[in-house]
Amino acid sequence: MLQTLILLVFSALFISVHSIGEAYVMSGIEEIKNILTAPISITYQNIEELKNHIDEERVRFINVVGKNGSNSPDLNIFSNEIMEEIRIRFTGKKSPLQEWLKSLRNIPNEERKSAGAKINELKSEIENSFKSFSENYRIQVENKKLNSETDDITLPLTQLNLGSRHPVMTVMRDLMVPFQRMGFSVVDGPEMDNDFFNFEALNVLKDHPAREMQDTFFLASEWVLRTHTSNVQSHAMKERKLPLKIVCPGCVYRNEFDMTHLPAFRQIECLVVDKGIHMGHLRHTINELLNAAFARPVKLRFRSSYFPFTEPSAEVDVECQQCFGKGCRSCKHTGWSEIGGCGVVNKKVLESCGIDSSVYSGIAFGFGVDRIAKDRFAISDLRSLIDGNVSFLKSFGLV
Ligand SMILES: [Zn+2]
Fold first, then answer.
1. Is the same domain home to 137 and 258?
2. What is the Cα 47 distance to its own chain's centre?
């Protein structure tokens, strides 16, 4: 009676331990470890004993990987390390299988053939089964990894702050579109240039006010930071073949800084030199470009003016984009806003660049791109364009 009771208590304990998942897993690992590490007898007295050893080894291997390696490896038990231990235990250099293969040479000839066949049969079974089992293991690991990486497509999008173009760059980009359509070449030039290309070749004589200290940043000896992109025109007329049809966008420098002037700003300059070029070409081209720069048709006004490198010359005004001609603070109540200068290239400029002015004529104009951006986007102070104020940029959807 007492014995029956003790047996029941043990049974209850046994069942309770094995009904807990973790305990089961632990026992699974233990079982495998026991098989891998249990001491086994590999020596034999006769061929029958060898055959028995081989059959036992086969059972041990099947207990680990299943028949033909068909078990589905539980990743709570199997790991890369355990897989390697199985490989070494059953096929490694010191495995029973290899020892038996080595021992074949000691078996008498008449029995060697059947012993060899038995060992090789086990060898091929183990190799094929382990291959299948390894593949099953690899698939299990891959599936586990894929499941853990599944994307949740219902998650909300992360708001990316992509930024946008600066207003000056927006104007520059829009300005370049008609130039491209009309077949102009874009030409780049040096921002630091010598006196000849920045002034003299453009007929800016030694006593011209543009050379005064308050306007120009003078560098060593004859060098200056270019005060306009017109220096590219001088280079182009000297270095390129006629006819010329070029546009020169770029940064220029003047020693000025207030609401309507920046010390570094962008200009776009255009030059056409060919036979029969006249003021009509100039007006048409400027009209096309400024409509593009403002992204809407704008009213223009040409006021007679003086520039050393053009004759005749004119200032180009655009109807004020804030009051549309009525007059406001921004346009100083004139209804117009000054955008740039233009004219027919002065014959002296053509001659100084080695061009025969009796055969060729040219037109040129230059616009301040920042000035256009100021008018187009109704910016009251030009300095806002460069001070990096985030709230200003945000108002343009730029950040
Ligand atoms: Zn106005």
1. no
2. 71
Rounded to whole angstroms, the Cα distance separating 269 from 251 reads 11
**Gap from CA of 380 to ligand 1 centroid (Å):** 11
Least reliable range by pLDDT among 88-92, 235-239, 357-361: 235-239
pLDDT of the residue at 393:
78
**Å from CA of 294 to ligand 1 middle:** 15
Q: Ligand 1 mean position to 369 CA, how many Å?
A: 19
Which residues participate in the annotated binding site for Mg(2+)? 311
SS (H, E, C) 339-388: EEEEEEECHHHHHHCCCCCCCCEEEEEEEEHHHHHHHHCCCCCHHHHCCC
Number of structural domains the chain divides into:
2
Note whether 344 and 226 are same-domain residues.
yes
What does the pLDDT look like over 207-245, one tens digit per residue?
Answer: 777 676 558 888 887 899 998 888 888 788 888 888 999
Q: Are 363 and 345 in contact (CB under 8 A)?
A: yes
- How much distance in Å is there from the Cα of 293 to the middle of ligand 1? 18
Centroid of ligand 1 to alpha carbon of 331 (angstroms): 4
324 CA distance to ligand 1 centroid (A)?
6
Range of the domain at 246: 167-394
Here the CATH number for the domain that contains residue 293 is 3.30.930.10
Write the CB contacts of 71 (distance below 8 Å, at least 6 apart in sequence). Answer: 64, 65, 133, 136
Instruction: With CA atoms as reference, report the closest residue to 168 among 229, 227, 251, 233.
Output: 251
In the reported structure, the alpha carbon of residue 321 is separated from the centroid of ligand 1 by a whole-number distance in angstroms of 7
pLDDT at site 214? 55
Contact partners, residue 114, CB within 8 Å, separation at least 6: 47
Q: State the Cα–Cα distance between residues 303 and 341, nearest whole angstrom.
A: 9
Q: Is pLDDT of 296 > 70?
A: yes
CB 324 within 8 A of CB 214: no
Ligand 1 centroid to Cα of residue 387, in Å, is 25
Residue 124's pLDDT is 94
What's the pLDDT score for residue 291? 93
Residue type, 23: A
Residue with tokens 């630091």: 192
332 CA from centroid of ligand 1 (Å): 7
The rounded Å distance from CA 335 to ligand 1 centre is: 5
Token digits of residue 285: 């081209």
